[in-house]
Here is the input.
Amino acid sequence: MNAAAADRLGRLLNLVPYLLARPGIEITEAAADLDVSEKQLREDLELLWVCGLPGYGPGDLIDMAFDGVHVTITYDAGIDRPLRLTPDEALALVVALRMLAETPGMANRDAIERALAKIESAAGDLAGAPVAVRLPGNADRLDTIRGAVERQRALRITYYTATRDETTERVVDPIRVLMVAGRGYLEAWCRRAEAVRLFRADRIDALTELDEPARPPRQVQLHDVSEGIFQPGPELPIVTLRVSRGGRWITEYYPCENVRPDGEEWLVSLRVTDLAWARRFVLGLGPEATVVAPPDLIEGVRAQAAAALDQYDKEGEYEKEGQYS
Here is the structure.
């Protein structure tokens, strides 16, 4: 269901009890109360005439007296109460809106706070349930980042890059904080890379707010994270793995180019930022995955696995020597 259809469904479900409480109301007054145009309200009323209970006969459909100026519901087909949120739905909305209100750099904060106030008022005691809203990651670190964004101050950070397995120090100009898939990210202009970068908050090992203003270039291109943080492009290398049942979970957590059943196993193709990360990823999967392509990754995994086994054998020999010495 698209957004327009969902909006109309909600409006129709609330329209019947609204009209039941106001028999003979004028169309102009009802349209103003419901914040819709008279044309839209008339179209909604025409649709209501063909809605009702299964059977859809004369005694099953919603009926009304409508003279073109005034309207009165004469049969409600059981829709006599406004649409209500369940307790779980209301609490979920309260928690989500509180999280949005805590996120720095969020646009339309006033609208968020107004919506939160309305839902909390309607939820009553439920809104005061002992649910603490905390941004994921290190709370103190996110508070510092949030403050730097709001004060528009530059930061010196020590950051761990998982794809390259390295830690670097850099100065960044904070732009905004994002929450994606339950994680906090700092989006900033990186002076070292001379580009906009996303830094995962829990991978910032240290940070210091500098006594200088943040100065990201004007009209920088911000990341579109509507479909997630990692959005692989055709320029990235593609890796094909043969995964067993225990490794199929990777297709739910990583964007895949192709997933094809092959007997009891799956052939999974996905793009990666670099083959070094892919090598560590495959080794972490253990016996649940085998590399099919590319050849460089096959050789890299084989070499690192052999080195690990060799080291294991040496440690075993040292232990035996210690026992008999």
Summary: The two ends are 75 Å apart (CA to CA). The chain has a mean pLDDT of 78. The CA atoms of residues 158 and 206 lie 5 Å apart. DSSP finds nine helices and twelve strands in the chain.
